[in-house]
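If you are new to this repository, start here. Below is one unmodified record pulled from the training split, so you can see the exact layout before writing a loader.
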Amino acid sequence: MRRITIKYAQPGMILGMPVYDYFGKEVLGRRTKLSDQHISLMNKNSVSEILIEDWRVDDVIVAPMISPEKEGKLADAFRQLLISSKNAQSINVEGVNDVNVAIMEIARNLSLSILGEINVSCSVSQNDYAYVQPVKSATLSMALGQRLGMPTDRLVIIGMSAILKDISNIYLSLGTNQAPPSSIDETEIIPEHPMMSYKLIKQVNNINDEIARAVLQHHECWCGRGYPRGLKEQQISPYAQIIAAADAFTSLVVDHPDKDRYMSHEAIEYIMAGSGDQFNPDLVESFVRKIPAYPNGLNVKLNTGEIGIVSDPNLGFVARPFIRICYEPERGNLKKPYDINLAKAEYQHMLISKVLEYD
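And here is the target side for that same chain:
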């Protein structure tokens, strides 16, 4: 399968995977042959990327680590929590329980998962950003925790912490035409919001103290320049350390209503640049080796002129995936594409210079 953004969808293309909306509802089924009406429907539902059949990579499996249905169920539960709490003085307890159930279901499935790709990229409408971005942050935090060996109960803690961390900011944005502040640009954040969110969460009796602590500390920096307490290094909750990196990454790769998204490899560079300053350097090392810079099915051009499709992200080798070469400058389109492993010394002169069909 080949991965493209909706901008490059054309009538006649055949879907290799079903297409879902933010909240887990199937928009189009697998093997749908696209028409102008289908493309219009996907645009209406703010679908950002699709996977299409391509004979050159028909053996390449693109399987999400977290199913769109389960992620959508979490997004819907979080949306209902925010709506039910909007005019109240405290968080709706029943809504928190529903979010917890959805988080637990994802955590249990992650604990059983061996294969699957972490995929957080999406284009989110302004109206839905408050509901969707925190979910993407939570699922990435959980997926990273799973790949770091966390058991199910700890995955639930990190998921709940991540999804509730900005709840005070979101409260302030509901009912307005503004999206919640970005977690990347600290000048846009209400500095008191970790404490405000902490106090809201502490009002719910059955919320784990570790969740409240992670929420309070998710803007602390490894070097000690964060807030609200200027904690540093291991003074910071391990959950908060993971959430900080995952949320920064997610805020970049999810298309904010007011700014374009980064590609995964660009967001990984951002995380690497913050190593030892904003983020735990050991965590950054694990992060960049467990999150694909170039996911399966992505169409790329090399500095040597070849064009190919990522056939394996080659986790553990940062930004050096397997590429199935489909075009050579001297020979044109190839009848028999072939794979190369950019991590091998013989290909060290070859670099990915451009991502195609994904802007």
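Two things worth knowing about this chain: The first helix runs from residue 36 to 44. The chain has eleven helices and eleven strands.
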